[in-house]
Design goal:
Layout (H helix, E strand, L loop, with lengths): L12 H25 L29 E3 H16 L7 H14 L18 E3 L16 H18 L3 H22 L4 E2 L6 E2 L2 H20 L6 H16 L2 E2 L4 E2 L12 H9 L17 H12 L34 H21 L1 E4 L4 H5 L8 E4 L3 H23 L10 E2 L6 E2 L5 H14 L32 E9 L6 E7 L13 E2 L1 E4 L2 E9 L3 E10 L2 E4 L5 E4 L5 E7 L2
Parallel strand pairs: 11-19
Antiparallel strand pairs: 1-2, 3-4, 5-6, 7-8, 9-10, 11-15, 12-13, 12-16, 14-15, 16-17, 16-18
Helix pairs in contact: 1-12, 1-13, 2-3, 2-4, 2-13, 4-5, 4-6, 5-6, 6-7, 6-8, 8-9, 8-10, 10-12, 10-13
The chain binds 2-acetamido-2-deoxy-beta-D-glucopyranose (NAG) (6 copies).
Amino acid sequence: MYRFFVCALGIAGTVLGQSVDSYISSEGPIAKAGVLANIGPSGSKASGAAAGVVVASPSTSNPDYWYTWTRDSSLVFKSLIDQYTTGIDPTLRTLIDDFVSAEAHIQTVDNPSGGLTSGGLGEPKFNVDETAFTGAWGRPQRDGPALRATALITYGNYLYSSGNTTWVTDTLWPVIENDLGYVVSYWNQTTFDLWEEVSSSSFFTTAVQHRALREGAAFATTIGQTSSVSSYTTQANNLLCFLQSYWNPTGGYITANTGGGRSGKDANTVLASIHTYDPAAGCDAATFQPCSDKALSNLKVYVDSFRSVYSINSGIASNAAVATGRYPEDTYQGGNPWYLTTFAPAEQLYDALNVWAAQGSLNVTSISLPFFQQFSSSVTAGSYAASSTTYTTLTSAIKSFADGFVAINAQYTPSNGGLAEQYSRSNGSPLSAVDLTWSYASAVTAFEARNNTQFAGWGAAGLTVPSTCSTSGGGGGGGGGSTVAVTFNVDATTVYGENIYITGSVAALSSWSTGSALLLSSANYPTWSITVNLPANTAVEYKYIRKNNGAVTWESDPNNSITTPASGSTTENDTWR
Ligand SMILES: *[C@@H]1O[C@H](CO)[C@@H](O)[C@H](O)[C@H]1NC(C)=O
Ligand SMILES: *[C@@H]1O[C@H](CO)[C@@H](O)[C@H](O)[C@H]1NC(C)=O
Ligand SMILES: *[C@@H]1O[C@H](CO)[C@@H](O)[C@H](O)[C@H]1NC(C)=O
Ligand SMILES: *[C@@H]1O[C@H](CO)[C@@H](O)[C@H](O)[C@H]1NC(C)=O
Ligand SMILES: *[C@@H]1O[C@H](CO)[C@@H](O)[C@H](O)[C@H]1NC(C)=O
Ligand SMILES: *[C@@H]1O[C@H](CO)[C@@H](O)[C@H](O)[C@H]1NC(C)=O
């Protein structure tokens, strides 16, 4: 049934490398075709899906994945946009433009999480005809808008630098601005994690939100859309600070979710590292770069947590690759290894090897020592130049370790090369949704990383973690404390098509963003109203703005200001200035 039977025990690195080469040369094109087959309107397995819509899997029952998730779609299109913008595949332009149009529309679809400016961007999935999915679900999931912004910014940077400035500014930027504004407004609220099970704060979500705002600030500056840049940067700094809190120094790993009641060992963390990889950031631990000591320590703890839970891993040496899943306590569809989670450690390690090669050295610290000791029991903390035998010993063993994860997936890939979601923990046969788009995309990106294919970074180099974490737009206070309901009434006459919004100095008022400013109700026109939960006992500044078909008009100076009460609620009565 399987093409590759690779025994990870005692196999020489080069033999393993050759069998992995051979798997990649056959599986690479199958994986790329598998991605494209699941994208409407003309993908061979996506018949009925709208143009540019990524179907998660053609499986329509047990499980039914005939939907489009913002997370999966954005990760998939990020890999296609990387291929297009680096010239690897010049044929993808039309498909990418279809994706932009599809997402621009989906952003406007009212759904159970809200509307465009009232939280609806956090809706995790839609029907493949771009209508809202209204059944019960784990919502919202706040990684989607960040991942979509990252994919679109990659495209925008490429187009803008090739001289296509008008379309980027007029058509692409408003879509990106919606997503960045959402992240600014909602990053400090609880979210369902990427596996749609735990509602708390989630490392993957925080990491990709940080990335989106960081590169969003740079992109907005590049294209001259600067009105919200300072709020992107402020909240990016807040996110970078919050990101550090997931590190568990005693266990030597990143706790994936603040809730959930599990060990917290989770592919969430490895996926975060590879999807926030920046080749220019070296082995920076503040952003958990793939070769950082924290991410390597975390990788070991994550991988080791699966050694004894899957019987297909039994008998494999304690320093060799094994099949891995989402998290060791998983029971979904039997709680099995996943292809995409087993490719993830390989990709992280290939990224690490590429950075060490570029830097001509690697560092072993007290945090990463247990990871490196798997490959040389005598290694000690220190810096090892590429000319040293320690460097050669470690990097060649790590390359074999990385290849081992690909070899495990190869062993359990059926002869037609199809990648389902999972494979059996007891006999390795494929399980759950067939032809999972994200499984194929994870193969594509892992193979590219092994090949040291370089994609653009996002500004992760040289960041400084703030010394104290804040949740506000700077000086507003209110971190994590109680809130009070504040009703804002403003008398404002408007013309047809014009609406009144509010934005202000705290995250709950979108941190001075215009893109994610909050829409007031005109039910008592000409009085416009909204009730917002604001941090208690806090000085808050705000202004009303008018929006008409994208044009923004600010109220005249000065800023309005209030100090919220310590408890209860209050009403502000204003007149548009
Ligand atoms: C810019 O790119 C968009 C998206 O592909 C395209 O529709 C538009 O025609 C391009 N404009 C120019 C001037 O090339
Ligand atoms: C909000 O941010 C603060 C400061 O980083 C953090 O302590 C708190 O856990 C965050 N809450 C959520 C839900 O993100
Ligand atoms: C190793 O550590 C030194 C000193 O902290 C640092 O300058 C260098 O960039 C590090 N190299 C790598 C590959 O992490
Ligand atoms: C690896 O890189 C080479 C050179 O850039 C390219 O020709 C080849 O297609 C790449 N292979 C994969 C699997 O990405
Ligand atoms: C209103 O607040 C913003 C953001 O803090 C600030 O940049 C601006 O100068 C303030 N306006 C006035 C008139 O003080
Ligand atoms: C605003 O108007 C409401 C109802 O007319 C009133 O109860 C409230 O006290 C007013 N708020 C202020 C700050 O004057």
